[in-house]
Write a structure and sequence with these properties.
The complex is a heterodimer of chains A (about 110) and B (about 110).
Chain A (H helix, E strand, L loop, with lengths): L3 E2 L3 E4 L5 E7 L9 E6 L6 E4 L13 E6 L4 E6 L8 E9 L3 E4 L3 E5 L1
Parallel strand pairs in A: 2-10
Antiparallel strand pairs in A: 1-3, 3-7, 4-5, 4-8, 6-7, 8-9, 8-10
Chain B lengths: L2 E4 L3 E3 L5 E8 L8 E6 L6 E7 L4 E4 L7 E6 L4 E6 L8 E7 L4 E2 L3 E5 L2
Parallel strand pairs in B: 2-11
Antiparallel strand pairs in B: 1-3, 3-8, 4-5, 4-9, 5-6, 7-8, 9-10, 9-11
Classes of the chains: A mainly beta (about 110), B mainly beta (about 110).
Chain lengths: ~110, ~110
């Protein structure tokens, strides 16, 4: 199995842009789609990016996803930061052993 | 509107079992798989496994193999997660999620304490 490593925390000011990385420990990041979830305190996670870069309906286009094979990582980018974006963010991918794996999560603080 | 509604909070003794339900309402049930994900206090998300109700097949993470059982009742569109031989480390919020994790239950808090 591989691991997905995320920074523990990131912070940025309102209106700015922030990126959260998710690095795959072995195997190619492009081998399996990456999803991203937002979890506000006391709530269940919600899907904000699926299949690397697709947004579910209702998710603002301020949220975007990408993968970078050179760093073997996926990224979630949030532009025009708002205070309501303050939450925990998790990446997820599928292991070929039929396992779903989550990254450790990143706490986003909007200063 | 499709929802996943989970059963209420539980407090259990070490060594006992807990069974959490997740009822799907407002949509098709048999077309999807359902996963169980847990989150210990202050920790991240941990996938436990999944069940395909239409065929009754489950896939469990090896860490939980032998202690967890997923079942489904197609007549009530409900999936269940039973965790046995509870330990204090099983204290967590347990979520069900549909198929590609596009829909989640509200979570069920399970506290294991003597």
């Amino acid at each position: 199995n591989f691991m997905l490593t995320q920074p523990h925390s990131v912070s940025e000011a309102p209106g700015k842009t922030v990126s959260i990385s998710c690095t795959r420990s072995s195997g190619s990041i492009a081998s399996n789609y990456v999803q991203w979830y937002q979890q506000r305190p006391g709530s269940a996670p919600t899907n904000i990016i699926y299949e690397d870069n697709q947004r579910p309906s209702g998710v603002p286009d301020r949220f975007s996803g990408s993968i970078d094979s050179s760093s073997n990582s996926a990224s979630l980018t949030i532009s025009g930061l708002r205070t309501e974006d303050e939450a925990d963010y998790y990446c997820q991918s599928f292991d070929d052993n039929n396992l779903w794996l989550f990254g450790g999560g990143t706490k986003l603080t909007v200063l | 509107q499709v929802q996943l509604v989970q059963s209420g909070a539980e407090v259990k003794k070490p060594g006992s079992s807990v069974k959490v339900s997740c009822k799907a309402s407002g949509g098709t049930f048999n077309d999807f798989s359902f996963s169980w994900v847990r989150q210990a206090p202050g920790q991240g998300l941990e996938w436990m496994g999944a069940i395909i109700p239409s065929v009754g097949v489950s896939n469990y993470v090896s860490k939980f193999q032998g202690r967890v059982v997923f079942t489904a009742d197609r007549s009530t569109s409900t999936v269940y997660m039973e965790l046995k031989s509870l330990k204090s480390e099983d204290t967590a919020i347990y979520f069900c999620a549909r198929d590609r994790f596009d829909l989640w239950g509200q979570g069920t808090r399970v506290t294991v304490s003597s």
